Amino acid sequence: MKNFLFLFIAIIFEIIATTALKKSEQFTQLIPSIITLIGYFAAFYFLSFAIRTIPVGFAYAIWSGVGIVLITTIGAIFFKEIPDLPAIIGLSLIIIGVIVINVFSKTTAH
């Protein structure tokens, strides 16, 4: 269970880093650029703890699925990047995929 906490922390840092990356304007803004670099370092650091016991493919599926949905939500709220219907359908399929992996996959029984 502790490793899922590490995975959650990794996802949060990745979301922070990706949001700062948008604000860094191709690394021309110092503070957002520093936040981006520290955030990605922290994200991979905590991910490395998570994959000690969580299978890497399973961890990455959760990492990427949750990350995509959260960063899309942040983009819509803070950057006015509103997803269209196909994007919403795609995001819904990603959410369903993460749920299927979590609920039905025996891969996590590792």
From TrEMBL:
<dbReference type="GO" id="GO:0015220">
    <property type="term" value="F:choline transmembrane transporter activity"/>
</dbReference>
<keyword id="KW-1133">Transmembrane helix</keyword>
<comment type="similarity">
    <text>Belongs to the drug/metabolite transporter (DMT) superfamily. Small multidrug resistance (SMR) (TC 2.A.7.1) family.</text>
</comment>
<keyword id="KW-0812">Transmembrane</keyword>
<feature type="transmembrane region" description="Helical">
    <location>
        <begin position="30"/>
        <end position="51"/>
    </location>
</feature>
<keyword id="KW-1003">Cell membrane</keyword>
<dbReference type="GO" id="GO:1990961">
    <property type="term" value="P:xenobiotic detoxification by transmembrane export across the plasma membrane"/>
</dbReference>
<dbReference type="InterPro" id="IPR045324">
    <property type="entry name" value="Small_multidrug_res"/>
</dbReference>
<feature type="transmembrane region" description="Helical">
    <location>
        <begin position="85"/>
        <end position="104"/>
    </location>
</feature>
<dbReference type="Pfam" id="PF00893">
    <property type="entry name" value="Multi_Drug_Res"/>
</dbReference>
<dbReference type="InterPro" id="IPR037185">
    <property type="entry name" value="EmrE-like"/>
</dbReference>
<keyword id="KW-0472">Membrane</keyword>
<protein>
    <submittedName>
        <fullName>Multidrug transporter EmrE</fullName>
    </submittedName>
</protein>
<dbReference type="GO" id="GO:0031460">
    <property type="term" value="P:glycine betaine transport"/>
</dbReference>
<dbReference type="InterPro" id="IPR000390">
    <property type="entry name" value="Small_drug/metabolite_transptr"/>
</dbReference>
<feature type="transmembrane region" description="Helical">
    <location>
        <begin position="58"/>
        <end position="79"/>
    </location>
</feature>
<keyword id="KW-0813">Transport</keyword>
<dbReference type="GO" id="GO:0015297">
    <property type="term" value="F:antiporter activity"/>
</dbReference>
<dbReference type="GO" id="GO:0005886">
    <property type="term" value="C:plasma membrane"/>
</dbReference>
<dbReference type="GO" id="GO:0015199">
    <property type="term" value="F:amino-acid betaine transmembrane transporter activity"/>
</dbReference>
